[in-house]
Amino acid sequence: MNQVFRIAATGLSMNYMPEYVAQEQGFFAEQRLIVESYVPSPWTQCLTDVDKQDADVVVGGIWLPLIYMDRIANYYSFAKIASRCPLVIVSRQKIAEPLNWRAMEHKRVLVSGGDGASHYLSVAGCAKEGGAEIQKIRFIHDFSTSMIIDMFLGGFGDFIVLQPDMANKFIADGRAYLYCDLSRHGGIIPWSVYYGTEALFNHPDNLAGRFYQALQKATTWLLENGGKGCKSIIERNWPHVKLADGIATIDRFCQIGMWTPSIEITEQELTRWQGFLVEGDILDKPLDYRKVVKKVI
After folding, report:
1. Model confidence over 51-67: pLDDT tens digits?
2. 88-185 has which fold?
3. Which of 36, 56, 236, 273 could form a disulfide with 189 if both were Cys (CB 3.0 to 4.6 A apart)?
4. In whole angstroms, how far apart are CA 272 and each of 63, 76, 141?
5. Which Pfam family, giving just one, matches this sequence (predicted)?
6. Residue range 3-84+189-292, CATH number
7. What is the DSSP string of 229-278?
């Protein structure tokens, strides 16, 4: 018998493509799952829904289960869908190559605070790894994405962190220059994962395990077929994006490792990401890998 599996998504994103492929190619159906996905507003409604079991899982940043653990609610992660931060940093003035993270020191860097903590944490963590003194970077991360865009266009700020489509528009319009594509230069982290409550992992029919197997099959298929295999998904979900540009984005993500061959959340990448959270002072110390990640197959 087919069973409904509901995903409360924190957004609709091209780096979630393996999930959309699993739906399109019938891999969920092979596991006897009827997968339904929706994006509530505000995104924090995802947590309410999974707590009430109106949703089975949340797809979003693993930073939230980490900082909520043993404080607010315990959520456990079991599969990743994005292994790199997709954000792009653009600058008001052209910065000479090669990438020099210290160029942001003593400058205002606008980062959205409306989508959670991960945008700021990833930029700050990568900058520190790259040799910058974080305390010298003037991060502005108290405003929504739309507000920081208006502020930057109005002349405020030296750098701004954006989603790839918006960053490309800024560059094409001559309003900014490419400084750093984090999907290329940000390294491997468990950027987006699926997580749920203990109830999911106690389900007698192993819904999480069946979902995992379908998602793994979709990831393998995506890495083999690339953007051309996603034409209908791109056209349906991103009608404002030129099809050729959408295909190119998926191909680039495949090439740079946005999706790794395995969807398993590894201890190494989680340790690195937790280091960013500790540095950002939203986590006291790294949590034990086995406390955070559930094995479902």
Report:
1. 999 999 999 999 999 99
2. D-Maltodextrin-Binding Protein; domain 2 (3.40.190)
3. 273
4. 12, 18, 22
5. NMT1
6. 3.40.190.10
7. GGHHHHHHH-TTS-HHHHHHHHHHHHHHTSS-S-----HHHHHHHHHHHH
